[in-house]
């Protein structure tokens, strides 16, 4: 494990992986879902604390236009969000959205997160992975990362925690609304 010594503390190299749809809907439950006003930079600093942020990535299905007004509006909003993320210092990774029965369903996002977890582990890109997702489809990759000596921190929400993620990750932090509110610009 490659750690850096700083003021007698071990500083871990951290990767943050944010499941965008999962994050959005958890914030929506708290009535804090305006992502274009969200301080992602401050949020990532809060998550890594005194550790070293290597990279933060936001995962989301890419919106395509189909000629309808709604799809065009969603496409434009997503472009604004991706620009906002970039300005805040986050990378983004796009899956795709499949439209079925007039609803959009994300595809490929979990796979992108899983691949990035495994690449980070096998290429020794970090010591500590911070996963902002309650998606239990990621449990096999979490277990493999732990087998390889990495710590996985589950960031969930106290109003709707994933007990499976709490049980399987090395560490867990369940955020309360008052911990998120400072990152929402008024």
Condensed summary:
This protein has 186 residues and is α/β, with parallel strands linked by helices.
Set out the fold topology.
Elements: E1 4-6, E2 9-11, E3 13-19, H1 20-29, H2 40-48, E4 52-62, H3 69-87, E5 91-100, E6 103-107, H4 109-122, E7 128-132, H5 139-147, E8 151-157, H6 163-168, E9 171-175, H7 177-180
Parallel strand pairs: 3-4, 3-7, 4-5, 7-8, 8-9
Antiparallel strand pairs: 1-2, 5-6
Mean pLDDT: 91
User: End-to-end distance, in Å?
Assistant: 41 Å
Count of extended strands: 9
Record the strand order, biggest sheet.
Answer: 6-5-4-3-7-8-9
Number of domains: 1
Mind telling me the CATH superfamily name?
A: 5'-nuclease
Evaluate the radius of gyration: 17 Å
Strand count, sense and barrel status of the largest sheet are:
7 strands, mixed
Query: Any guess at the CATH architecture?
Result: 3-Layer(aba) Sandwich
Task: Please trace the helix and strand order, writing H or E for each element.
Answer: EEEHHEHEEHEHEHEH
Top CATH class: Alpha Beta
Helix content: 25-40%
Classify the fold: give the CATH topology: Rossmann fold
Structure classification: alpha/beta
Low-pLDDT residue intervals, each spanning 5 or more residues: none
- Percentage of residues in DSSP E strands: 25-35%
**Tally of DSSP helical segments:** 7
Q: Tell me, briefly, the overall form.
A: globular
